[in-house]
C-alpha cells in the first residue's frame, strides 16, 4: 500500500493525499505541493500512513518541499494581492452590469492563476469580464460559481450557538442534510430554529442523527401497547435523552416509566385459517382450483327514434 500524507490548502478545506517523497513531515507543517491549478502552500493535517490504492485519487503527486520563511512571506503577499483583486473585480462587475455577488479571490502560490468565487441566482455570461480581468492582472483568470452553503463557508461567521460556523472551522466536506434528521431528534420543525446562516438546514443536525436513530431503535415506538404493574397503556411519547417513555393508561392517566420495567403485552391469538374452497380432482387425482366463470354482459337494445311530430 502506498504511503501518503493528508494536506489541506485552506482552513477547513478538503483534504488531499500526497506522496511525502521521503520528507519527514508532521502534523501542522507547512509544505509546497503541486495541484491541478499549480503550486499551492498547504498544511499537513494527517501524518504519513499506508492506505489502499482504491482510496487514492490518481495521479498521486509528491510533496515538493517544506515551506521556508520566504515561502510564508510570499503567501502573505498573495493574501494582500487578493484583497486588491477583489476591489478591481467588483468594479469590473459593476461596469458590465452583471447580476453576480463576488465572494473572494484566491491566488495560487506561484501566481500563475487567480480564481474568483461568486454566487448568483442563475447562470451568468461572464466571458467579457474574464477577458478584462486577464488584461488587468496579466495572468490566467477563472470564475467559479458556488452555492449558498459554500458561500457561507467562504465568508465564515458565527452560528446560533455562538460558535464559529462548522463548515468554516473544521468540516472538510459538506454532507447532505435532510428534514428527517430533525424529525428523528424530536426538534421543532421551525425554519428559524433549524436553519443556518446560509438559509439551509444546519450541518450539526447530521452530527447526532445516527446516535438518535440507534437509541430510538432500542425503545418502544409511539403507539405501541406496553404492560406495566399499574395496567396496560399505549406509548404516547419517547424521551431519547432520559431513555424514558410516557404511557397513557386505559383510565386516561399519563405515567413516565423506564422501558426496562415494562413488558410487552401478550400476543393476541391468531385467527383460524379459513377452509379452502372445494375443488374437483383432475384425471391424475390432483385437486384442481375452481375457476370463476364470467357472466356474459347483456347488450342493451337501442330503440329506434320515432319521428318527432
Give short descriptive properties of this protein.
alpha+beta, four-stranded antiparallel β-sheet, 7 helices
Largest sheet: 5 strands, antiparallel
Mean pLDDT: 83
Q: Structural class from helices and strands?
A: alpha+beta
What does the overall shape look like?
Answer: elongated
Secondary-structure topology with pairs:
Layout: E1 3-8, E2 15-18, E3 30-35, E4 38-50, E5 65-66, H1 69-96, E6 101-107, E7 113-119, H2 127-137, E8 140-145, H3 148-155, H4 166-169, H5 179-184, H6 191-194, H7 209-217, E9 225-228, E10 231-239, E11 244-249, E12 254-257
Parallel strand pairs: 7-8
Antiparallel strand pairs: 1-2, 1-4, 3-4, 3-5, 6-7, 9-10, 10-11, 11-12
Helix pairs in contact: 1-2
Note down, in words, how this protein is organized.
A 5-stranded antiparallel sheet has the order 2-1-4-3-5. Strands 9-10-11-12 form a 4-stranded antiparallel sheet, with no helix packed on it. A hairpin with a 5-residue loop joins strand 6 and strand 7. It has helices at residues 69-96, 127-137, 148-155, 166-169, 179-184, 191-194, 209-217, and strands at residues 3-8, 15-18, 30-35, 38-50, 65-66, 101-107, 113-119, 140-145, 225-228, 231-239, 244-249, 254-257. With 309 residues, it is α+β, with helices and mostly antiparallel strands. The protein is elongated, with a radius of gyration of 34 Å. The protein starts with a strand and ends in a 52-residue tail after the last strand.
